[in-house]
């Protein structure tokens, strides 16, 4: 309450961020989605990812995405529908300072796409100590995926705004990040 009042945070949405961590049970995940194909994000397909991201977030985060995929040690994947070539989801995986893997973010049009992106991103890392992810409690599929991975809830926290809540397509937001810069 003191932080909220002194900093002027007047808008507190009902949704909460849930942070999960642990050693992921990768064998529990589906590796592929029959109607999609997974590929690396490169400068050649980045425009498609930026457009998809903007549809989810409601704002253009091109600069963030360009910098995120160029970061050393990052694995960036997208998923396309085989039938029409449209983006069905994407994820950027990074290692944290405690040698865990963290998807920052992972957006998908369905639970099975999110699962395939998670599997294909995490398996590309060697010698990691665990998986850390953050999600919103309004996406049941994201919570189910975290539980399927065998991760434990570490904390539940509110988000606060000074003027207005940001709208986004939360059903497509499986894992958020980096939450310190973007709330989705």
TrEMBL record:
Residue span, YitH/HolE acetyltransferase (GNAT) domain: 49-174
Gene3D superfamilies: 3.40.630.90
Pfam families linked to this entry: Acetyltransf_18
Entry protein name: YitH/HolE acetyltransferase (GNAT) domain-containing protein
Source lineage: Eukaryota, Metazoa, Ecdysozoa, Arthropoda, Chelicerata
């Amino acid at each position: 309450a003191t932080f909220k009042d002194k900093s002027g945070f007047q808008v507190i949405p009902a949704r909460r961020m849930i942070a999960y961590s642990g050693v992921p049970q990768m064998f529990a995940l589906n590796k592929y989605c029959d109607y999609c194909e997974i590929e690396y994000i490169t400068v050649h397909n980045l425009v498609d990812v930026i457009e998809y991201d903007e549809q989810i977030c409601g704002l253009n985060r091109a600069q963030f995405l360009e910098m995120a995929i160029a970061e050393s040690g990052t694995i960036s994947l997208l998923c396309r529908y085989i039938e029409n070539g449209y983006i069905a989801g994407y994820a950027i995986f990074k290692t944290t300072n405690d040698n865990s893997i963290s998807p920052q973010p992972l957006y998908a049009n369905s639970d099975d796409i999110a699962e395939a992106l998670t599997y294909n991103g995490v398996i590309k890392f060697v010698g990691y100590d665990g998986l850390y992810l953050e999600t919103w409690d309004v996406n049941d599929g994201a919570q189910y995926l975290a539980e399927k991975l065998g991760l434990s809830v570490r904390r539940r926290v509110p988000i606060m705004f000074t003027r207005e809540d940001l709208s986004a397509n939360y059903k497509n937001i499986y894992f958020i990040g980096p939450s310190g810069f973007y709330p989705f």
